[in-house]
Amino acid sequence: xxxxxxxxxxxxxxxxxxxxxxxxxxxxxxxxxxxxxxxxxxxxxxxxxxxxxxxxxxxxxxxxxxxxxxxxxxxxxxxxxxxxxxxxxxxxxxxxxxxxxxxxxxxxxxxxxxxxxxxxxxxxxxxxxxxxxxxxxxxxxxxxxxxxxxxxxxxxxxxxxxxxxxxxxxxxxxxxxxxxxxxxxxxxxxxxxxxxxxxxxxxx
Length: 204
Fold this sequence. Notes:
By secondary structure, the chain is of the alpha+beta class. It contains six helices and five strands; from the N terminus they run ααββββαααβα. The protein has helices at 3-17, 26-43, 104-111, 115-129, 149-157, 172-191, and strands at 51-58, 61-71, 83-88, 95-102, 158-165. A five-stranded antiparallel sheet has the order 1-2-3-4-5, sandwiched between helices. Helix 1 runs antiparallel to helix 2, helix 3 (104-111) crosses helix 4 and helix 4 packs parallel to helix 5.
């Protein structure tokens, strides 16, 4: 299996798998283990450490948006807080987003109904802080095709990144090159103050 093949499996099969429970489903295993294993291999040439986790959902329900995230343990070990890199699989089309993202659940807990506006404003400021990465990671917004607090929060929490159609996932060199660029941006954000912005409290 390659990284591109693993990502393609999820993007293609997730819409078909949703009627069945994730427990014991082969696709859930690819999200939890297959994609993370390939990502760990792709990250080996890049000095770590990194923690990689995938989530197809919980219990008997698929996630509205399955994800596989890469964490710098010095920043966060959870998708709920801090900031991290994440592959997101939209519900409305066969595609994959690579996103440098802010923790959504922590923002919802702190800001309540104002979380989405807070995350979008924060994302705009952080994107300006990373202006030198806009060319290599050009997506300022993403669409996940799901309604709800978490999917809409993920959209708002996006800082910058890339999107792949199915045909793009056959280019393994590109995927690894893009991953390295995203890791560089992740580290640059850490070096430039993380989520801390003028007038805000600690963000990371």
